[in-house]
Each structure stands twice: as structure tokens, then as C-alpha cells.
Design brief:
The complex is a heterodimer of chains A (434) and B (276).
Chain A (H helix, E strand, L loop, with lengths): L3 H5 L8 H7 L8 H14 L1 H39 L6 H13 L8 H10 L6 H33 L5 H38 L7 H21 L8 H16 L4 H29 L4 H6 L2 H28 L1 H9 L4 H45 L3 H32 L2 H6 L3
Chain B lengths: L18 H7 L4 E14 L2 E14 L3 E5 L6 H8 L7 E6 L2 E2 L5 H11 E4 L11 H11 L4 H14 L15 H12 L6 E5 L7 H18 L2 E5 L3 H6 L2 E6 L2 E7 H11 L1 H9 L1
Parallel strand pairs in B: 3-8, 3-9, 6-7, 7-8
Antiparallel strand pairs in B: 1-2, 1-4, 4-5, 9-10
Helix pairs in contact in B: 4-5, 4-6, 5-6, 6-7, 9-10
Classes of the chains: A mainly alpha (434), B alpha/beta (276).
Chain lengths: 434, 276
């Protein structure tokens, strides 16, 4: 007890009106740091409940952010669909003219070997596994056919030796022999084409030495592919995506070689429009599968708004409940602080800060979780279209609003319990312990 | 029985017309004046009258104990004096200022500056260190943080806890926690310390240390100590003991009269109180 010194310098206590005047003067308060110690300390002591409260905020805000972002994805897709559907298609006459013009150009003749090689690679001509497989089959078929042919020839010769054979019978046997020969020739020519194709593929893969004959084979192949592709432009829906890729490659090449550029440009437009039509069809299909109507999305969906409001209200009630428990558990602490001279406003501030802290952390996490869920579900439901139509511009806006509403709701939810704590008389708050 | 009928004398006379009390009060300043205070609680439909017109004065620098069985109104009177509760009728005046005239904000300031509180269960703020707990009333009163920290460290040294300033309450023993609470109650140099059964949760030896500390501080600094207690060791160091029963003052005893009365209530405790 070395307080004797201090007790002597103790000022005379104020009395009556002097004390009253002093009480009505400027008051003190807590520094931000002390407030934060109380708030974060309180959260740490009640860690489990703080986390549960934060999770409820995370869920609600993730839902809000997800709904906002995903709705934008759907709106963007619906807009893209309407936009693409409104593009006017080229007239069939113009397309037919361009096809005719393009067919006449000698695309391959002017190309160097390297260019040809590149083109062949772009057309996937190095993929020869199916041809090799068919080759084996063809060899078997040809030897079988030759066996049959030998029998046919033998029976024809036998017939020729036979006396009393009519001219009609002989004619019939000769026709049979010719047909058999023809069949063998057909199979052999197919075999030769396959062999060519395989040689070409091996050459492209670098497994065989360069041979001018292979360049000729390529030329022949290209002419065939080209005319095939150009012919199918009249009915583009028969294109496989691979066909379209090949056709676009050819057109690009034609343009760079300075050939029939007008026709090439027209055909390119046809291809681009064909791609768009397919994209629209794909997007419509994906949206129908996801149960989303393009028209309803453009008109705005009141069901979503209702869901969001429900989620946010549930979240607010959850926060209110958690804060009420926090206040109830801390009656003694509140009473003690009031005894020590804490103002009602300080108690309010303390609980609002505690809740706002949970709101900030919860809403921050929730916004990120919502973004991730929106990205994942856009990619899963709408494939690449979901990501290309992802609202990059509106993203920050949506996330900002989600964050803000999380914090505001956390504070609003804490208002009733904070007011209850502030309005308590110190004696009532302290009585709870007994 | 020395005090007799509580209704004797004028209802506004805190000395009950008793010569010994008049002599005791002579020349002393009244720090708390309780006049005709009654307090009613409404529990569902039933009205409970916790206090029925109590009139008492608390004098500057005295060590006053309030005793009485539970439900007697002892705690209610104690809370009235401390400005923690408002009377239904009557007035409580602290330092010449009537508490019920003050707004909640000014009541909080009055508690902060003029009254220090010590509780049976210490009531330290669990998330704060000993130092921060002692700093609380200082900061709430507007002392800037570095000054508050210095003063709090001094106070903790005075109660013998200079080494444990950065421990949290759950790292301290009961006696140590109560010493932190004592340091906290003295933080703003109040004139009145309210101690609600300060030894109630402590063992005998620690309780004795706390009592000694309180009475020394009271003597050295001229602080008025008002305690609600059952502890006869505390009664023994009191200048005056007020007994409450059924919401009324049963008797007021001065220290000189104490031994006999206590003895008459309880033989064992009386001997103990006499020994102290």
C-alpha cells in the first residue's frame, strides 16, 4: 500500500451543483483500439457461434451474388440469341454464284510443296489409321474376289468347249466374267486410293521420304475435298464441325493466294452465319435443358427476386438470433461496463460493430463463393457460352452490392439486441448472475 | 437490542432520533442521502415491495456495511445507493445530486467518476487483460490511453499485481481477480466504493487479505466504503452496520456496539468477529 502519496494530492470531490455541471460537460469514450479489443475478443471467446453466424451470412450472400451473376449470364445469353437471330442471311442465288466461281479456281496448282504439306496437315490427312484398317480388309476381299473370278472364268471356258451351247448362254457367261473383273478392278482402285492416302499420311508424319507423286495425290485429294465441301454449302446443316474447319481453312488459303476473293468472302460469310445459327441452336438447347425460357429471362423473372428476399430475410433473422444470444450471454459484462460508466451509445456501438464485423467477413467470403458457384454452374449448364457471356462488366457491381447488403443486413439484424442491451438498467443486467 | 423500532422518530431523520448516531454523524459530510426510499417490483401480477421507506445517510470516509438475510431488500438498498437502480418513491442523493434527476447519460458519468464497484464474482471483462480491465473506467471517463495505462499499472502495483498486468482474468486466481477489481474500482479516484459481498467467492485467508486491503485503502484515501456482506470479518472492521429486514432498517449499530449484537445473533460468528 504505497498509495499514501497519491491520496494526499487527491482533489476535493465536487458537490451539488458543481458536480452536476461537471457531469453535464464533455464526456470521455473508448478509443477505436479498445473497442476493437472488446469486439474481436468477444468474437474470439464465442468463436463457434461467430463462425456459425458468419456461415449463415456467407450462404445468404453467396446465394445473392450467385443469383445476380447467373441472372446476368442468362440475360446476356438471351440477348446474344436475339441478336444473332436477327442477322439477315445471304440470298441463295448469291451463294450459288460464289460456289460456281470458287470451283473454277485452281487452288492447288500454284502452291509450293511446303504449302501443300501445311494444308494437308490442316485437313487432318495425316490421320490414316482408318485407311490402314480398311486396307487389310480390302486385301482379303480382293483375294476372295480373285478366287471367285477364277471359278467364273473356268466355268466360261468350260462352256466354250461344250458343244451345242447357244450364243445367248455364252453371252451370259461372258457378262458374268466381265462383272467379276469389274468388281475386282473397283476394289483394286479403291486399294490404290487408300495406298495413296496412307503414303500421303506417312509422308506428312515424316515417316517416308518426299515423293513428287505424293504431291499429285494430295492435289487429287484436295480437288475432291474441295468440290465435296463446296457442294455441301448448299445444305450447310450437313457439315460436321470438322468439315467446317476444313472449308474455312481452304477459304482462308484461297484468299491468301489471291484467288476469287469475292466468292471466298461470300462463302466465308455463309460459313460464319452457319456457325452463328448453330450457336443459337446450341444456346437455346442448353437454356431449355436448364429450364430457362429466353423470353421470360428478357422480361425479368419475379420468382428469383422473391427467393433472394427470402434468403436475405432468413439471414437477417439468423443474425438477430445470434446477436440476441450474444447479448443474453453477456448481461453481466454489459452490467459491469455500465457500472464502470459506459454510455448506452457505447453499448449499441459495441454490438453493432461485432455484428458488422461478422457481416464484413461473411459477406466478403460469400461474395467470392457466389462468384465461384456462378462461374462453375455457368460453365456446367451453358458450356463455353456460359463463360463467354459471363458478365465481366456487371460482376463488380453485383459483388459490391452483395457485399454491401451483407454488411447492412448484419447491422440491421443486430439493432434490436443492441438496443435491448443499451436500454437495460445496470442492476437488471447484473441481477442475471444471481 | 439497541436500535429498536425503525419507525421511531421523524421519518426523514436518518439518525432515528438516536443520540449515539447524532454524535457519530456530527461534523461528517453526507455523501449519500437516502430519503423515504421505497422500491416495488412487479413480478407478473404480484407487486413485491423490496424497500418500504428507508431513510439513511452515508458519511464521508466511513466504512459502512449493510447486512440482512436474502430477500430482505439489502441488495436493493445497496443498488439504490450505488445509483444502479431508481426508487419507486423517495430520493437518493449522491454528493448533493439527486440521481433520479439525472439522464441516463449523466447517471453513467456519475457512476464513472464518483463511485467504484467491487462485485462478489469479480466481474472482470474476460476478453481483456488485467491492465485493460483497470484502464476501462479511466478510458470511459476520457483519460487518454497512455495516461490510463500508466495509472492502471500503478494501481495494479498497489494491489500487488505489478507482475501480472498482461494476464487475462481466466489466468488469475480468485483472489488475484478480486484485487484487479479493487484496482479497477479505485481507477477514477472515486469517493465511494461499493463492494457487494467482495469476499463471498474467496477462501477465508484470501478474504482476509481483501478486507485488509479495502480497509487500508479506505483509511489512507478517505474513501467511503459501502459493502453488502454476511462476512463477520468485514463487519468487524466496519464503522457502522445497517441491518435490513423486510424492506426496512431493522437496526443501525456502531462499531462499539457491534460485538454484543453479532454475538447475540450467532455465537460462533460473534467469537470470530471478536477475534478479528
Amino acid at each position: 500500500m504505497s498509495r499514501a502519496g497519491r491520496s494526499q494530492i487527491r482533489t476535493q470531490p465536487l458537490y451539488g451543483d458543481d458536480l452536476l455541471a461537471s457531469l453535464k460537460g464533455e464526456g470521455g469514450g473508448l478509443t477505436t483500439r479498445t473497442l476493437l479489443t472488446l469486439v474481436t475478443g468477444g468474437l474470439r471467446v464465442r468463436l463457434m457461434r461467430s463462425i456459425v453466424t458468419m456461415i449463415s451470412v456467407v450462404l445468404a450472400i453467396a446465394f445473392l451474388a450467385y443469383m445476380g451473376l447467373f441472372n446476368h449470364v442468362q440475360v446476356n445469353m438471351a440477348n446474344a440469341i436475339t441478336e444473332l437471330e436477327n442477322v439477315s442471311t445471304l440470298s441463295p442465288a448469291k451463294v450459288a454464284l460464289a460456289v460456281g466461281e470458287f470451283n473454277q479456281g485452281d487452288l492447288i496448282g500454284s502452291m509450293s510443296v511446303e504449302d501443300k504439306r501445311d494444308l494437308a496437315l490442316a485437313l487432318d490427312l495425316d490421320d490414316i489409321s482408318t485407311f490402314e484398317h480398311e486396307m487389310a480388309g480390302l486385301d482379303g476381299t480382293i483375294s476372295q474376289m480373285e478366287g471367285t473370278h477364277a471359278i467364273v472364268v473356268a466355268s466360261q471356258q468350260e462352256l466354250e468347249q461344250k458343244p451345242g451351247v447357244t450364243e445367248a448362254e455364252l453371252e451370259d457367261a461372258r457378262a458374268k466374267t466381265a462383272a467379276s473383273r469389274h468388281k475386282i478392278d473397283g476394289a483394286k482402285s479403291r486399294r490404290a486410293l487408300h495406298a495413296n492416302r496412307i503414303d500421303l499420311g506417312r509422308w506428312l508424319a515424316g515417316n517416308a521420304a518426299a515423293d513428287p507423286k505424293l504431291a499429285d495425290a494430295l492435289n487429287a485429294h484436295l480437288v475432291r475435298v474441295q468440290s465435296e465441301l463446296l457442294a455441301t454449302w448448299r445444305t450447310p446443316s450437313h457439315f460436321t464441325p470438322q468439315d467446317m474447319g476444313h472449308a474455312e481453312h481452304l477459304l482462308g488459303l484461297a484468299k491468301s493466294e489471291g484467288q476469287t476473293s469475292d466468292a471466298a468472302a461470300t462463302l466465308k460469310t455463309v460459313l460464319a452465319q452457319e456457325r452463328q445459327k448453330r450457336a443459337v441452336a446450341d444456346m437455346r438447347l442448353l437454356m431449355r435443358r436448364a429450364g430457362v425460357s429466353v423470353e421470360a429471362t428478357l422480361a425479368g423473372n419475379p420468382m428469383d427476386t422473391w427467393l433472394i428476399v427470402m434468403a436475405l430475410m432468413t439471414c437477417t433473422v439468423g443474425i438477430a438470433n445470434a446477436m440476441l444470444m450474444s447479448v443474453t450471454e453477456r448481461f453481466r459484462e454489459i452490467g459491469t461496463m455500465k457500472c464502470l460508466g459506459a454510455q448506452d451509445a457505447l453499448v449499441v456501438k459495441l454490438f453493432l460493430l461485432e455484428s458488422a464485423f461478422q457481416g464484413i467477413v461473411g459477406a466478403g467470403l460469400g461474395t467470392v463463393v457466389g462468384l465461384l458457384i456462378a462461374l462453375i454452374s455457368a460453365a456446367l449448364q451453358f458450356a463455353g457460352y456460359g463463360l463467354t457471356n459471363f458478365p465481366v462488366q456487371q460482376m463488380w457491381q453485383v459483388m459490391g452490392w452483395s457485399m454491401l447488403s451483407g454488411v447492412v443486413l448484419a447491422i440491421l439484424g443486430a439493432v434490436p439486441s443492441a438496443l435491448m442491451a443499451a436500454r437495460m438498467n445496470p442492476v437488471d443486467a447484473l441481477r442475471i448472475e444471481e | 437490542m439497541i436500535s429498536g423500532n425503525p419507525h421511531r422518530g421523524a421519518p426523514d431523520d436518518p439518525t432515528e432520533g438516536r443520540q449515539d448516531l447524532r454524535e457519530y454523524a456530527a461534523g461528517k459530510q453526507v455523501v449519500v442521502a437516502v430519503r423515504q426510499v421505497s422500491r416495488e417490483y412487479r413480478i407478473t401480477d404480484e407487486v413485491v415491495r423490496a424497500l418500504r421507506g428507508v431513510t439513511v445517510d452515508v458519511y464521508g470516509g466511513e466504512y459502512l456495511s449493510i447486512m440482512g438475510p436474502s430477500g430482505s431488500g439489502k441488495s436493493t438498498l445497496f443498488n439504490m445507493i450505488g445509483g444502479l437502480d431508481r426508487p419507486t418513491t423517495g430520493t437518493v442523493t449522491v454528493h448533493g445530486v439527486t440521481i433520479s434527476d439525472l439522464s441516463r447519460m449523466h447517471q453513467a458519468r456519475l457512476r464513472n467518476r464518483c463511485i467504484g464497484y467491487i462485485f462478489q464474482s469479480y466481474n472482470l471483462i474476460p476478453v481483456m487483460t488485467a491492465l485493460q480491465n483497470v484502464m476501462m473506467p479511466l478510458m470511459l471517463g476520457g483519460t487518454e490511453p497512455s495516461g490510463a495505462a500508466d495509472r492502471a499499472a500503478d494501481l495494479l502495483k498497489d494491489v500487488g499485481l505489478g507482475e501480472r498486468t498482461h494476464h487475462r482474468p481466466d489466468e488469475l486466481s480468485g483472489g488475484q481477480q478480486q484485487r484487479v477489481a479493487i484496482a479497477r474500482s479505485f481507477a477514477n479516484d472515486p469517493d465511494i466504493i461499493l463492494a457487494d459481498e467482495p469476499t463471498g467467492n474467496l477462501d477465508t485467508k484470501t478474504g482476509e487479505q481483501i478486507i485488509e486491503m479495502l480497509s487500508n485503502l479506505s483509511k489512507k484515501r478517505g474513501v467511503t466504503i459501502i459493502s453488502a456482506t454476511h462476512d463477520h470479518k468485514m463487519l468487524a472492521v466496519s464503522d457502522r452496520v445497517i441491518s435490513i429486514r423486510d424492506g426496512q432498517i431493522e437496526k443501525i449499530e456502531l462499531r462499539s456496539q457491534l460485538r454484543i449484537t453479532v454475538g447475540s445473533i450467532d455465537e460462533d460468528s460473534g467469537r470470530e468477529a471478536g477475534d478479528a
